[in-house]
Amino acid sequence: MTRRATRRIQVGNVPVGDGAPITVQSMTNTPTADVDATVAQIHRLEASGCELVRVAVPDMDAAAAIGAIKARITIPLIADIHFDHRLAIAAAQHGADALRINPGNIGGRKKVDEVVACARDRQLPIRIGVNSGSLEKDLLATHGGATPAAMVESAMGHVRLLEDAGFERIKISIKASDVPRTVAAYRLLAQQTDHPLHLGITEAGSLYAGVVKSAMGIGMLLAEGIGDTLRVSLTRDCVEEVRVGFEILKALDIRRRGPEIISCPTCGRCGIDLIEVVDQVEKALLPRTVPIKLAIMGCVVNGPGEAREADIGIAGGEGVGILFKKGKVIRKVPRDQLVAVLLAEVDQWEKENGAA
Ligand code: SF4
């Protein structure tokens, strides 16, 4: 797929836009002023592969905590601010790598100029984040509601405020909580600007609804070449957001991180307790980062075909699994040893293929 040409910005040491890898980000849900809790959550996010983290900055205590948090984490930190430009300035002074703030909502040109001067001095980007639920009243009236056109007009209004101040390190998101509006809004926005875009479906919901909406909305846009970084929003542990984000990139063959497990849905021919085997293997391999294709199939009807195409594969028989490696049958493995053997084969494969 051809990616839309965008400008590049730097969020700390992570590039966004202009062909840089599409990054996966998330947001903490601890009180930011609670440094220990926030750092602990960011460490879990880092371990899951999260590449950029956003923290809420609702008050000066949260802004002041940023320095202490930054000192203990390795990924760039984005400060999320609503309305109060003093919080944006304080967050930047305490070491935030980027700001998320909508300049049209902070009280006029003088305050915008102050935030811009502060961001420019520190070479920080600003993300404009438009959500369908908080559009300006006049735009809602003109467009008859929070339509994609209204969302784009709002975003471009914020962009102009920054550009008029000579500020160009901009990233934009334009999220609704439903897929059709979000996709339409991003498509429209992509025609009007070449600033990099942060993709997401806002308030997507709990695990099942959130995964489906995010995969469809973010996936459709990515497949069209739109999008430079993404955040999956789930009413769930934020580590799950990162996992889903990478699964979306993996499914579209855009980026690979960790194993891709191909497994069959099982049917009456299934010769082993496949669901349990897949669960155990998936859980054990969660922290792995080396891309590898595994096939775990229930029987010898379709199993060997898939298993042969994978780096390592198992096709279940009656109480045994046939182990394949790089297309070759290696041996039969008793059911009670299947998971251990598969994991040992992955270890070996990683050694031979450059494990981190
Ligand atoms: Fe059924 Fe075998 Fe296909 Fe799995 S691989 S769904 S067990 S036919």
From TrEMBL:
Domain IspG TIM-barrel: 6-245
Keywords recorded for this protein, A-Z: 4Fe-4S, Iron, Iron-sulfur, Isoprene biosynthesis, Metal-binding, Oxidoreductase
Domain IspG C-terminal: 260-347
Gene Ontology biological process terms in this record: isopentenyl diphosphate biosynthetic process, methylerythritol 4-phosphate pathway; terpenoid biosynthetic process
Biological or metabolic pathway of the protein: Isoprenoid biosynthesis; isopentenyl diphosphate biosynthesis via DXP pathway; isopentenyl diphosphate from 1-deoxy-D-xylulose 5-phosphate: step 5/6
Enzyme nomenclature, EC number: 1.17.7.3
Cofactor binding comment, as recorded: Binds 1 [4Fe-4S] cluster.
MF annotations from Gene Ontology: 4 iron, 4 sulfur cluster binding; 4-hydroxy-3-methylbut-2-en-1-yl diphosphate synthase activity (ferredoxin); 4-hydroxy-3-methylbut-2-enyl-diphosphate synthase activity (flavodoxin); iron ion binding
Signal peptide region: none
Family named by the database record: Belongs to the IspG family.
Function: Converts 2C-methyl-D-erythritol 2,4-cyclodiphosphate (ME-2,4cPP) into 1-hydroxy-2-methyl-2-(E)-butenyl 4-diphosphate.
Protein name in UniProt: 4-hydroxy-3-methylbut-2-en-1-yl diphosphate synthase (flavodoxin)
Organism: Desulfatitalea alkaliphila
Lineage, top ranks: Bacteria, Pseudomonadati, Thermodesulfobacteriota, Desulfobacteria, Desulfobacterales
